[in-house]
Amino acid sequence: MINLKCNVKELDDENMDLIQASAILENISNDPGVTANEFLAELINSGALADMEADASMIRRLTLAAVSIETMMTLEVQNDEFGEPTVH
Known about the structure:
With about 90 residues, the protein is mostly helical. The protein has one domain. It is built from three helices and no strands. The longest helix is centred in the C-terminal third of the chain and has 23 residues, at about 55-80.
């Protein structure tokens, strides 16, 4: 897994959430349009929650990170000015 540190705890935490959510999304598909149900099922089935403190806050943070990633991917598909599509 990528280890990005900028020594600002909030940014480091958010980056880690995005990286973890991205890995879960990649297990489902590299195409935009992953549903919340698909993401939560993969989150549970992947064992990712067993590797971390699986409290409601962590689940919420990973879900919000996944929504952010999916939103960016969907907007990019609509505005196909970037050439190559972004993958999770």
